[in-house]
Amino acid sequence: MTPFASNRRDALRAGGAMLFLALAGGKLRAADSIGRPLPEGDAYAPWTLWNDPSIRNTPLALAAAGVIAANPHDTQPWLFAVSDDAIEIYADTSRNLGAMDACLRELHLGLGCAIENMLTAAGANSYAAQLETAPGSLVDLTERNRPVLAARLRLRRIAEPAPDPRYPAIPLRHTNRYAYDLARDLPQDWRAFARGLGAAGEVKVLLFDAGSPQRRLFDAAVVAATEAIIADKPMIADSDRWFRASSREIDAHRDGPTLDAAGLSTFTLMFAHLFSVSAETAQRAWLDQTRDVQLPTAPVAGLIAVRDRTDRPGAIAAGRAWQRLHLDATLRGMALQPLNQPIEMVDRERQTGAGSAWAQRVAGLTGEDWQATFSFRAGFSSTQASPSPRRRLSDVVRS
Fold it and tell me: Cβ distance 284 to 21 under 8 Å?
């Protein structure tokens, strides 16, 4: 998965920054109920709804938590059928990434993230929740135009709230694409937590420290895959069509990658808001930022692997693991970012029948018994990440 909210905008020179300020009239950001700065506009309101009194202790509170989960390219590929004792989670296959996600693997990772948020929110809203996932292979899922049932949460009321310790992190978790502090190591207990996510045998988390032989292989694969995606016109076009360049587009769509979440410097962000750039320039900047900023500043990179990356329940389990990992990291003040380009190339290679070179390359990092389905970097950043726009609860809840 190219970052869940992609940063494919140009790292431009800062020469127009002051002009931007003058023309923009010093437009300020709003703040949410816990004092965290937010981009302006109703498209960001769902980040404050997760614990709103109007829906607290109802199944809608769980769905509201699901709406602000991580997901590929901020496509938000979910629909929720909510009743008093259950929530059905549907894959909205019409919100697919085309050649970037050939078998809807990343879509199901996003569903897993939403499910993990809902499970995390259940106890705090006086529910016990039991998860049931739809069986089957992603290879057999050819639907691209209608919702397909992916999972169900069975809900049972409990007498007293039982908050999960990660519950407060739900509205604070954001993908951070800024530079990390290479000199600051990650907590050992977080490393242990990450590795422990595979205790049930569904997933396995592998961590690679900067400078290690495996890490050098990881970094090289991410850079090469980014180059390959840019060179693949259908892939890059299917990625870029989700980008929302203006506040008007954000308000209209309430989804997709934005400049505010791209990890740009303050001056570059101001300049980019004012002046448009070519797709080629933006794509080159994505490659430069990946190679020159994101990889070399990250003290740790990692993979989430499953036994079969085309297994639907396995993809959901991997998405749940990523969300849990990110929520736990958020509580520790850490920064995380997906870097899924190599695995996107595995899927693309399979789709086009071009062979298995990328699958073999990624297998060199996992071994033959596991298949990577998610890759990421982790560290600490001095720059706070921005949230992404989200659809209204009424847009994704079905009766």
Answer: no
Looking at the predicted structure, is the pLDDT value of residue 25 above 50? no
pLDDT of residue 38: 54
Which DSSP helix (H) or strand (E) runs through 31?
Answer: strand 30-31
State the average pLDDT over residues 369-385.
97
Domains in the chain and their CATH numbers? 27-169 (3.40.109), 174-379 (3.40.109.10)
For helices 279-289 and 233-240, angle between their N-to-C axes, nearest 10 degrees: 90
Q: What is the pTM of this model?
A: 0.91
Contact yes or no for 99/238 (Cβ under 8 A): yes
Tell me how far CA of residue 331 lies from CA of 22, 166, 389, in angstroms.
Answer: 38, 7, 22
From residue 304, alpha-carbon distances to 280, 309, 340 in Å are 31, 10, 10
Is residue 391 a contact partner of residue 314, using CB atoms and an 8 Å limit? no
CA separation (Å) from 325 to 222, 271, 377? 21, 34, 12
Distance CA 94, CA 143 (A): 9
* Cα separation, 138 vs 108, whole angstroms: 9
CA 55, CA 80: separation in Å to the nearest integer?
15
- Rounded to whole angstroms, the Cα distance separating 315 from 322 reads 11
Sign of CA dihedral 133, 134, 136, 141: negative
Q: What pLDDT digit, counting tens, does each position of 55-93 carry?
A: 999 999 999 999 999 999 999 999 999 999 999 999 999
Query: Which of left, alpha, beta for 74 (phi over 0: left; psi -120 to 50: alpha)?
Result: left
Report the Cα 125 to chain-centroid distance in Å. Answer: 25
Q: What is the CA radius of gyration of the chain?
A: 20
